[in-house]
Structure formats: structure tokens, C-alpha cells
Amino acid sequence: MTAAPLIYDDAEIIGILRTVRTIAMVGASANWVRPSNFAMKYLQGKGFRVIPLNPGQAGKEILGETCYASVADIPGPVDMVDIFRNSEAAGPIVDAVLPIAADKEIKVIWMQLGIRNDDAAARAEAAGLTVIMDRCPKIEYGRLFGELSWSGVNSGIITSKRRKLG
Amino acid sequence: MTDRNRRNAPHEYGFETRTIHAGAQPDPVTGARNTPIYQSTSYVFDDVDHAADLFNLQTFGFIYSRLTNPTVSVLEERIANLEDGRAAVCASSGHAAQFLAFFTLLDPGDEFLASKNLYGGSITQFGVSFKRLGWQCNFVDPHDPENFRKALTPKTKAIFIEVLANPGGVVVDLEAVANIAKDAGIPLIVDNTLATPYLCQPFAWGADLIVHSTTKFLSGHGTSLGGAIVESGKFDWAQNDKFPTMTEPDPAYHGLTFAETFGDFGFTMKARAVGLRDFGPCLSPQNAFYTITGMETLHLRMDRHIANAQVVAEFLAGHPAVDWVSYAGLKSSPYKALAEKYMPKGAGSVFTFGVRGGYEGGVNLVENVNLFSHLANVGDTRSLILHPASTTHRQLSDDQRDAAGAGADVIRLSIGLETADDLIYDLDQALTKTM
After folding, report:
1. What integer pLDDT is reported at residue A1 of this predicted model?
2. How many independent structural domains does chain A possess?
């Protein structure tokens, strides 16, 4: 049985996108037409620092940032880990993050659109982290700050307030 | 629903609220409450890198109004929202929207199935003009949905129906056809023009794409041409190898794979970024503005359209100069049960009837009405009358005309929002002259 699609409160997503500044992107591709590369470049353009994680590219640069093999290798703190891998792979990635989350000041684990691992999410939430699954931060940023609507996408937003700019 | 979902479940706004608010917010800078008409061809780039990101589709934004325009975007989101879809792209007309939908799906040599009960212009577009592009349309009698299954070939890439067909008052068994399309791994495209999302929600019954001529009830006042494609976001383009235009790197866009990069709005992105870009049938911001304004009263207008249509259809059914009335809202209609299932509020306001005296009777009638306007459109505030055999369906053969419900004696009405008694008075006096 397929689990019901997840529902997140828009205010929670906005809160994350407004407070997170540094994102570790697991599975960032060096190939510029790949979706992860698109998302990384978009988020960089919105003022996020995105640190690419990809064992095959470790030590090289992607979009001007040094690539590392794992979260543990990143020097300094990270606000959010964004997982661009499949649902099964997300489990071990979360388990590797949890022991170093406090040290790295990691507050959010985000799994990309199509990626969902409820067990791993429960472990991360038990450790005090916020978890978002089956969403893309680029698409959510675009949706919540009006840019996705420019491409005719249904944002689901109904409000008489001025459109917020990101 | 999980506990997490129950906690986060947002308030669900009703259809009437969404016809007025979806897609539109006060302008972030000026606070303008109504959607401004952005009468601008083009938009400045912040710098060269921003321009590159826009052209590469790496960021969202405006380049040139052939692709996106802020007024048109509001209309697109509103239609996507009302259809409970993921995304929409507008075009200069309903025909342009159909062209873009099939261009995005098909390669030369591909085939699709379409209901025989379609607007005559669509039959010509699909059967004659598309053929010159190498797209083969095979027409199917929709009265038995299994006819679609029987007509499938390995090259069939889509099924197209009008759920409430123009002009015959025919209702197609949407859910049954959707299941056949699903079994075949191909999308069902529904033209929802005559029903509108207020009367029928095709995605709820399994449709994958919806097309509209927004010229009709959505715009509603006979002022503005326009069209739209809506994507449900639920069709898996990678489930088979039938849709390389969606799942393989696109040479028209530097090797981008649309289904993978844009996920559940990949189809509309491709229809826009390749289809609108390379063929150019974009909606003007002025027409988008009129359509947005018209749509804000869609729910009110449709209620009156169907109430008037019911009264006029019942009057005609008892008139001595009328042989038959094909309106799915009548008890005598063979489509009554399907209409109640798929459009429970009412069966629209476009229907046909047969006038005694055949072709000559039809010509006499349209020339003797005083209030009904004799013209080739539907979905206006004004009531409209047409004799398809001498106008819209003129280019079809007799067999095609009969199959499309447009035989020699057929009169098509689009019932407007006038006083119902006046509509009855006008038809009665003109019908009396045909006897």
C-alpha cells in the first residue's frame, strides 16, 4: 500500500527556508543538466550556501564550492542536509548524520521529491531534528515566494496579502 | 491520513473562493488588488548570469511574453487550481492548446485515438491538418468505451475525448475510458470546455490532461479568445518507452529531460519552453485579463446557464415543430445517467435539437430568430444559435456530420443568461415560421 502523500504546513516550510543558510546537498551532480545541479544553482542564487557531497567528485569543485565525500568531512557547521538519493539510501545517510548533528549544528534533514523513508525520519525526529520528505527545496521556495506561479504551477496559496518576495 | 498530516491539514477553500482568488495576490510592490495587465513584451535581466539561468530553465522568471507573462501566469494558475491540477499553460486559442498538447506528446508516425463526437473544428484539425505532421488520429465511436480498447495499436500515444461533447449533448463515460487509457499506459486528454471545472472535474475520474477553449464559458462574455492545457501531475511518463519526448534528453533544450527535471509539471514546462517558444501561439495579456475577470463569476453564470438550458430544452421537447431534443439534462436523454454521474449540477447549456423540415427548416429557423444570435461560438452571456450543417460542420462529409451529431436538421443552441421566457418566446415565434 502506498502511504498517503505528506502534508506540511506552508508556515513550517517558510520558516525553514528563512532560517537555514547552509545546505549540505547529498548526491549533488557535477553535470549541469542534472536536477541536483539545477537545484543547487537555484538555491545559490537565493543566497543559500550549498555544499555539494558526492564521493566521486570529492576534492573537486561544483558550482564554485568544494565537494566532499560525506557530511562528516565538511569543515564547519551546516544547517540542513538535503538528500538527493533514493529512499533506501536515505536511511544510512540519516544514520551517519545523527551522531554528528549536534556537533555540526544540523537542524533539518530534507529528502527530495520522490524520496521518503518514514523509519529514518522517525529516528531523526526522535533526535530532535526537523524532517521534510518528498519535497524539493527549490520547488518549495519557488512555490511559496511566487516564482513557481510564474510558470503556471498551482501553488495552492489563497490570500489577500501582498505576495511575499523571497 | 497520518497524525502528522492531520496536524498540518490546511483549510480547503471552496470552488467559488478559488474562482476569484486562485493564482492572484496583491502586487508585492504597489499593492494593486486586481491583476495588472502586464503589457510588456520582455523583462530585464539582473545580469548575464541571471539571463543564462533563465534561458537554461535553472531559475523561474520572465524573459519574453511568448513564453511567460505575469498576467497570463495568473490565469494559468487559476485554471490549474480549479481543475485540481498541478500546472497549466495557456495558448492563443483552444485549437492552439490542442496543437501544443499533441506536439508535446507525439513524434511523426505516432497515433492517437479521439472520440467521433467532437467539435467539428477538432475533427478537421486532428483528421486532416495533424496528418500532414505525421500524427495519425483514429476516430472511435465513444458510446461503447470498449471501442477505444479495440482501436489501440502499439503506436497509440493518447486518447482524446470531450466529456460533454459539442454539439450533440453527448456525455462520454469518462471513468471507463480513463481506465482503458491507464491499462494501455497512455494519457487520457479531456476537452472540458463545455462542462467547465464547475460542472465536471475530469482529474477526479482519472483523466491525465485537460484542454480548454477558454474563449467559451471560462471567459464567458464572448470577448476573448484563449486556450489552456492542464496537467494532473499524476501521469508517470517513464512507465514505458512510449514518451521519449518527455523522458529522453531533449535536443531542443540542451539535453534537458523534462519529466525528470520538472517532475509533476514537466509536461506543461515542455509545452511552454519548447512548444510556445518554437511555434509562438501565446495568449495576449489583454485577453488573459478579460478571461480572469470573466472567470470570477463562473460559478454564478454556470448556475444560470444550466437553469435556463433546462427550461428551454423542456419547452422544445414539447414543441410541434421539433422532432427531437438532445440535452443530457432531459429525462428522455440516453445520457441522463452519465450526466448525473459526471456533472451532477447540470449538463451544461449547449445542446442540439432537430427541426422539422430538415436542412431548409434549419436555415429558416436561424434566419428568423430575433434574440438568439446566429453565430459560430458557444459559452456567451448571450444565447446563440447555429445550424452546423450549413456552417461549422460544412467541411465534413455527410457520414462525418451524422457521426458528429450534426446532421441536416440539427440546430445547436448555446443558452445564455437572458430571461428564460424571452428565449422561449423567440424560439417559438421562429419555429412557428418554419411550420
Report:
1. 40
2. 1
